[in-house]
Amino acid sequence: MALTGIQIFKLLPKTNCKKCGFPTCLAFAMKLAAGGVEISACPDVSDETKATLGEASAPPIRSFALGTGDKAVKMGAENVMFRHDKKFVNPCAIAVNIKDDAGDDAISAMAEAVANSEIDRVGQKLRVDAISIECVSGDSAKYEAAVKLVAEKAPETALILNCKDAGTIEAAVKAVADRKPLINGTTDGNAEAMADIAKANGCPIVASANGLDALSALTEKIKGFGVEDIVLDSGARTAKDIVEHNTQARRAALKKSFKPLGYPVINSAIRDDAILEASIASVAIAKYASIVVISSIEKWKTLALFTQRQNIYTDPQVPMQVEQNIYEMAEPTADSPFMITTNFSLTYFIVSGEVENSKVPSRLAVMDCEGLSVLTAWAAGKFTATKIAQYIKESGIEDKLSHKELILPGQVAILSGALEDKLEGWTITVGPREANAIPTFLKSKVS
Amino acid sequence: MSFVVPKETFSGKVLAVDFGKDDKKITIGGENTLPFLSFEGECPNKPAIAYEIQDCPPDDWPETVLNVYKDVSSDTVTWAKYCQDELKADAIALRLISTHPDRDDRSAEDTAQTVKDVLAAINVPLIILGSNHIEKDANVLVAAAEASSGNNCIIGKAQEGNYKTIVAAALAHNHKLIAMSELDINLAKQLNILITQMGFDKTKLITDPMCAALGYGLEYTYSVMERIRLAGLAQNDQTMQPPILGDVGMYVWKIKETIAPEADVPDWGSIEERGIAWETVTATSMILAGTNLLIMRHPKAVENVKKTIDELI
Ligand code: B12
Ligand code: SF4
Questions:
Q1: Are B143 and B165 in contact (CB under 8 A)?
Q2: Global pTM?
Q3: Interface pTM (ipTM) of the complex?
Q4: Shortest Cα distance, chain B CAs vs residue A174, angstroms
């Protein structure tokens, strides 16, 4: 829990020496509480105070990365229980599990599938974020070979090494230490050995225990061994455990400032049935997991999970929007069709995707409607005949076109009459209601 | 520092609402905590799922779900019996879509007969839905309420523009009622107030804050539902305590992700599983936000959401 300015003031030297650049210790304390300066600006503060303040100013849920490089995934740093209060910060990583005895071909194929899993949805690039390699063979050499193979075939993907044997893990971690793998398999029994490996290689570690009580003790123990980047595994296996444990851990961290559970969470959603697995994974994503582990990555499954994660993690105050502009597709000429839509990201990406599909050179005017969809914007009075007419006139588009025909989304066919009145000389054509009919529509227009 | 389970107790409670008859009766709601947090409160009734059927062949449903019903959907009664007997539906939702003026504009009287025929053929609880045409629903649902009198059905949806006649009919024939507003907690609250002011018992209401499909506004529905739940539980706002409906199927089975063949969108994988997963994940997200009653279409999606619910309790 953050300290107030007064509480901080009590810990300062109270000499008002001004070395920090502030006229008084109190002024400095106030600024510190507001988060504008660092404690190190005061040269006279004791080490003990520094430690207290450092601890107090740490976020309630620790934040660090899974993996390295451009595709590393940030975890933790969450501040709220409900997304309507404030945007959830770091989207849950999706990890696929592979067993070390699956055979080289299967392991390579899975790693390659992950490396090629990226898709684009509503302007965001989404991919399977991590591969968890599970040691079931009990054979150190075999495990290390599997880990190396995955690392080689999926060169940018984050790695999770899932093995309870410290000796086996140590060799595997060393083999891929530059990838900062997440070490999974630490229990009360092997905590010291595992923590040493994590510390020596600068890797984060998963603490696994049965229930939050035992888990809290374990994270304290691991921290005592000098490892702070910890991920929580409460032993949750059923959907019920996932919801309850994750809720309790987040509440304890946020509302009770309970540090032993102030870490990101990993959940397994592995089930025999692929659709059930998607369903259970969606429970974890909605309910606070930072990593969810699944057993297969069929494209339909990851698409559904990426989309759900995107929905849960969008900013509830600001709809995703794109810039107002007249976008040109496939090098239009003065004769090319001219369409209009609103600047809600989802609307823009769906419509522009279909226009591109059609391969018909055209222009799409995207009008600023504060990020609302076509019908919502219309219902909110932001996509009206008057406003559209004004936008078209001011856009200067008339100079670029040899025609004056504007294609409206079918959902707002009702606007066409009023728009013809307001946009003198223009013909208003009502397009299809759904974007997937756009290619056929555009092709028939230019043929 | 030792761990103490951080429990929250709420002063409010979701109202328990039952529908149907005899041993097939279903009760939803009744919880005094957020969804599935039974470590700190009671969650006496699990979310229920009704299979959606229609009063005319579902020619605008995509193939994945159309195929399931291709042998039965030309006759509403056969379709209803199929859901009850073969799919083991716990409840059925009959959507009177053919009454819409843009569809067949079927008359209220005609439809009343369909309602009677379906009721005669099944014994699981029935939800009766209009075509979502404000004016037409006002007639159709009144006739449907009368035709189903005494069966303790859920009828809907009453909206701001037509609630008066529909509420009166539900009152007269002792049905439960769905009140639907458009993704806004204040509108939902206001409609519930207007309806109870007509003398309709709040313990017979179900709130539909309007659903949206995964990827198409799900986040709005999700947050409106969570806010309704918190208002009912934490602030003990009596007007925000009816159980919540998620009319999932109709929003899911019209979007591109459930329709586009794999050949057109190779990055999206198998169309069959894609559609089923889409309905499943949408419904699972809804129950986590507070939905007590789901209306769904694909049997495999229903099966997987049921398994998820069983894991959640
Ligand atoms: C999510 C949502 C909201 C969100 C806003 C989301 C957003 N960023 O826009 C919120 C909760 C804020 C909201 C608010 C309101 N909403 Co609202 N909302 C929806 C909902 C559920 C989904 C909208 C959506 O995202 N659609 C997806 C996008 C991609 O669709 P689209 O932009 O229309 O684009 C499609 C087509 O139009 C077409 N297309 C688009 N551009 C073009 C261009 C051309 C040339 C062509 C050919 C085609 C084309 O392609 C796209 C894909 O097929 C719909 C109901 C529903 N399920 O559809 C109601 C809906 C749009 N809302 C409605 C209403 C009334 C409102 C409110 C006025 C009421 C209220 N609740 O307070 C407010 C107004 C907002 C305000 N005052 O700020 C009504 C509109 C009714 C009507 N027919 O006029 C709807 C239809 C709900 C309903 N059935 O009553 N809403
Ligand atoms: S440098 Fe330290 S002691 Fe000096 S005024 Fe600033 S806070 Fe006070």
A1: no
A2: 0.89
A3: 0.93
A4: 34
